[in-house]
Amino acid sequence: MSIEMQSLLQVEAVSRRFGGLVAVKDLDLEVRPGEIFGLIGPNGAGKSTTFNVISGFLAPTSGKVTFAGKALPGGKAGAASQAGLVRTFQHGSYVRNMSVRDNIRLGTLARIAPGNRIAKVREAADLLGLTEMLDEIAGNLPHGLQRLVSIAISIAAAPKLLCLDEPLTGLNETEVTTVLRVLNGYRESDGRAILLVEHNMKAVMKICDRIHVLHHGEFLASGNPAEIQNNPKVIEAYLGQANAS
Question: What are the C-alpha distances in Å from 134 to residues 34, 99, 115?
Fold first, then answer.
């Protein structure tokens, strides 16, 4: 079996420069079907830049990104989304003055046939406990529920790879539990996978199958949660700080 068949997402020797600043350098990683893959590191480690390159919002300076066996064109987010790679954003991605229902419906427009969109909206809302709020204006909801709306929008698109940028920020314990349950269920269906950037280390260690650690834009370590937690380089660069905060 080829590497492309084994990997849903493959990032090969990707670098991204902004003038003289190297934000990401020679990054290699792969996400396999059916797994939750964590991308962690201190602030400024290059996580957001990596996410933007993978999802097509930035073109790599060098290297390539392959998704479902096909090279993704750099800097074309629409192509990534239509191929089945859908992302959320760190500060939420929803329309404040629209209803929860219409927000979630936005997620269905690119990939879901018109006749199936209503069912996808209901399914996503039910998964995230938003059914009773479908007619509420999204901007009027508490912050935690707004974050759930952003996740529901992405799930409604039925992506093959769901890329989540700090989805647990601002959520209470009950909401965190809901999101982790949804993510576990999502990746268990049809070989779907999740790429997760998150600062909640307790959640990352609980839900991720494998974790990739960045530091100053470069690879630091990769492994399962136990290996990462016990890696001296990771403890020195990141986990000691994260656990102390």
Answer: 29, 7, 19
